[in-house]
Amino acid sequence: MKFVEKKWLVVTVVMLICYLISIDAWATDAKKTIVFNDRSWDSIQVHNRIAGFILEHGYGYRVDYMFADSMASLTGLGKGDIDVLMEMWVQTNIAGYKKLTESGKMVDLGPNFTNAPSGWYIPTYMVKGDPKRGIKPVAPDLKTVEDLPRYWELFKDPESPNKGRFYNNPSSWALTYEINETKIHTYGLDQYYNVFDSGSEMALVTSMVSAYENGKPWLGYFWEPTWVMGTLDMTMIGEPAYDPKRWVKKDYGCAWAADNVVICVNSKLVETNPDVVSFLKRYETSVPLTSSILAYMKDSGGKPEDAATWFLREYPDAWHKWVPDNTIKRIEDAL
């Protein structure tokens, strides 16, 4: 009897070990960690965590997030140090995009979201006023860039009050920073406005929100989707219609094109991890959906990973379409 009990004990232990080995093998079968490119704005960090959670808990991959802004991220993607870029703003990064795709180092997997606007904004109350807050319109005729010279004193730069201040994005976003600087020069606004380096997205947002809450003027560059643009009533300053020739010429004397924001991967990933690529090809959201996720993160005081799990709980119909049926339960069990 004791022999039989020992025999079954040994069998049970062996089966348990085999089970644990199989679980570990499933979790490490990826053979590599999938590295996402983190940048300094919220939406890409949230999309990284959504995709990362799915790959980790649904597919058994380990994931990592490497911070690199602007051209450094494209260099890393081209070399293979970074595997996935969840937000390639094509129009904004057209030169780098073409270079990497044409060289075969990067593959465009299709849109994350489309028609994402960006441009120069002011608070709407500057033009229309806000009777509820007792704010009168101080620039009722400010509609286009051509009107900015006559209103520069409303935007006085506290560090150089002989000119107005234009809040640019952080200089670490080298390309967009330089485009806005060039636009200021092309429009002849450099004699009226200083270009201010915000230093970080957080500082740029803070400057806007602070001005808005105090009913003060503000002029600067911004984009969508973001929680702040979904919360504040802002108006985009008109520019001449988008003209691709002006962008080729690089004087940028026209509006930004509404951007198609696509998902790109290092080309080697297509061969080494086709399941990851298949998932990312199906991953697609929208500007309104992304804004709602970011608004939740702001309102709840959460982090990008909290916003990611909230999205996965609240929008199953969206992400179920991205993954095979056999991964859904694993992902939902991990939430």
UniProtKB/TrEMBL annotation:
Residues 32-314 form the ABC-type glycine betaine transport system substrate-binding domain. InterPro entries: ABC_Gly_betaine_transp_sub-bd (IPR007210). GO terms for cellular component: ATP-binding cassette (ABC) transporter complex. It comes from the Bacteria. Gene3D superfamilies: Glycine betaine-binding periplasmic protein, domain 2, Periplasmic binding protein-like II. One of its GO terms (molecular function) is transmembrane transporter activity. This is Histidine ABC transporter substrate-binding protein.
